[in-house]
Amino acid sequence: MEKFRISGGRPLRGRIGISGAKNSALPCMAASLLTPETVTLHNIPYVRDIITQRRLLEDLGSTVLTPELRTNKITASNIELFEAPYELVKTMRASVLALGPLLARFGKAKVSLPGGCAIGTRPIDLHLTAFQALGAEVSLEAGDVVARAPSGGRLRGSEVRFDKVTVTGTENLMMAAALAVGTTKLHNAAREPEITDLAELLNKMGARVRGAGTPTITIEGVEALGGAEHTIIPDRIETGTFLVAAAITKGELEIYNCRPEHLAIVIAKLREVGVLIEEVNQSTLRVSCCPKGLTARDVETEPHPRFPTDMQAQYMALMTQAEGKSVITETIFENRFMHASEMQRMGARIQIEAHRATVEGATVLTGARVQASDLRASASLVLAGLAAEGETIIDRVYHIDRGYEKIEDKLRSVGAEIERLRDSITTPLNAPEQAVAAEIA
Ligand code: EPZ
Fold first, then answer.
1. Tens digits of residue pLDDT in 103-113
2. Full-model pTM
3. Residues 411, 400: Cα–Cα separation, whole Å
4. What CATH class is the domain 22-231?
5. How far does residue 315's CA lie from ligand 1's centre (Å)?
6. What CATH number is given for 2-19+235-440 in this structure?
7. Phi/psi of residue 220, nearest 5 degrees
8. Most buried in the list 43, 68, 159, 389, measured by CB within 10 Å?
9. What is the pLDDT of residues 116-170, one digit of tens each?
C-alpha cells in the first residue's frame, strides 16, 4: 500500500489550482447513459473514483474517449448490459447513480446493493422508494437491486418526498424523471452545487429540470435526450481543504479556478475562527492566517447550504490548533470521526461522545505513523501532518487518491515537504494515465 511521508511545520506559500468536482463529475458521467449521442465533459478531475466510473460505463457498453486527460467524451449508443456489478459497486457506492438513467432509458437496471463503508451503512432505501413512486417495480435478488419500469417501459412522473435529504438520491431521481411520462416533483431535494451542475447538463441534453438548488425540483419528462458539452464545476471540498492547509500551517495561499460562492458557509466559519480570507474575484481566493491566532468555534454538519459533512474532518484538524474548546457535531453520517483517534496519536485532545467531538486546543501536534480510513479523514491527516512537528507517515493513501488529484504535487508546489512512498509493486494509479497518454498520442 502506498504511503505519504510528511515533514511538518513549514508554512505553505504560493498558488494552488482547483480541479473539477468529483461529486459532480460522477453523476454527470452517469447522465450520459440517458442518450445514444455523445456527452462531452470537461474539467473532469483525474482521481480514482472517476477511473472506476469510466470502467463501469465501459462495462455497460459505453465508449469513453479522453482526447485530453480531463475531458471525457462518452457515447452510450451500444449498451448491452444493464447492471452495475458488485466488484465495482463495492469500491465506489456512487455506482448506484447508474440506476436512474438505465431505468429511465431502458426500463430495467440491476445494481449490486452497495455495502456500507467506513463512514456509515449508506443505505439507498430513499432512492428505491422514490423509483417505486415513479411506477418502477423494485426487488432485492441475492444482494442486487433489480428495478423495472412498469410494462410499456417508461416511468410515470409523480410527486416524491424524500424523508431525508439525499444527494445521490436526488441525482438518481432527476435522471430517472427526465425520460418519464409526465411531470415529477422532488420535495426535500438536496441543494448542493453538484445538483445544480447536473441539472444544467440535463437541460443541455434537452431535459426540462427546474428548481435545482432549491428544496423542490420539477422535472417534466421528455421522449428522448441528446448529446451535450459541459464543463464540471470546481471542487468546493478540495477548495475548503486547501483553505485549511494555509491556515493550519500559518502560511498564505492564492487558490484559483475555484467558486467561492459554493463554499460560502465554510469561508464564513473559517473567518469566524480567525482565518483571513479575501475573495479576489469569482474564481480566486487569497487565504492567510492569523495574526491573532485561531479561536475555537463549534460547528454542526448539515445538508447544503449549511456546513458540509465533507469538511468536518478537515475542520477538526484545524480546531486542534485553535485556542479553547470546540464542539463538532456530525449529523449526516453515523461513523465519521475515525480521524479523531489518529489525531489523538499525534497529540490532539479530542473526546468523542456519539455524534459529538469535543476538541481542546491549541495543542502541539507531533508527527506519527497514522492510518487513513476514508477520503476526507485522509485529507485531515495530511493537514495534521503539515502542522505537526516532525515526520508523519500516512498509510493507505489510496483513500485520498479517490477524491484529490495529485494532492502531494499540489502541496509540494507551495512548499510542503511531502512525498509518496511507493510499494515495490506500484499500485497503478499512474498506469491509466499512461494508457490515457497512449490514447492521446
Ligand atoms: C454524497 O453521498 C456524497 N457523495 C458524499 O461525499 C457526501 O458526504 C454526502 O453526499 C453528503 O453530502 C457523492 O456525491 C458521490 P446522502 P450520498 O445520500 O449521496 C442517509 C465524499 O467524501 N441516506 O446525501 O451517498 C445516509 O445514510 C463523499 O466525497 C439514507 O438513509 O449521501 C446519510 O446518513 C462521502 N437512505 C444521509 O442520508 C438513502 O437512501 C445523507 O446521505 C440515502 C441516504
1. 999 999 999 88
2. 0.95
3. 14
4. alpha beta
5. 19
6. 3.65.10.10
7. -95, 115
8. 43
9. 677 777 789 999 999 999 999 999 888 899 999 998 689 999 999 999 999 999 9
Q: Render the burial of 258-291: b for 16+ CB within 10 Å, e for the rest.
A: bbbebbebbbebbeebbbbbeeeeeebbbbbbbe
Q: Which three cell numbers stand for residue 309?
A: 459533512
Spatial CB neighbours of 53, under 8 Å, sequence gap ≥ 6: 25, 26, 29, 30, 92, 94, 95
Cα–Cα dist 263/193, whole Å: 9
Ligand 1 geometric centre to CA of 159 (Å):
22
Residue whose grid cell is 422508494 = 129
Residues lining ligand 1, Cβ inside 6 A: 23, 26, 94, 120, 122-127, 164, 166-169, 309-310, 332-333, 375-376, 403
Residue of 239, 254, 284, 189 whose CA lies nearest to 379: 239
Residue 23 cell numbers, joined: 461529486
CA end-to-end span of the chain, whole Å? 31
**100 and 176 Cβ atoms separated by less than 8 Å:** yes
Bridge partners of residue 295, in order along the sequence = 323
Query: CA-CA distance, 48 to 53, in Å (whole number)?
Result: 9
Q: Closest ligand 1 atom, CA of 308? A: 12
Q: List every span in the chain annotated with CATH 3.65.10.10.
A: 2-19+235-440, 22-231
Rounded Cα–Cα distance for residues 236 and 23 (Å): 10
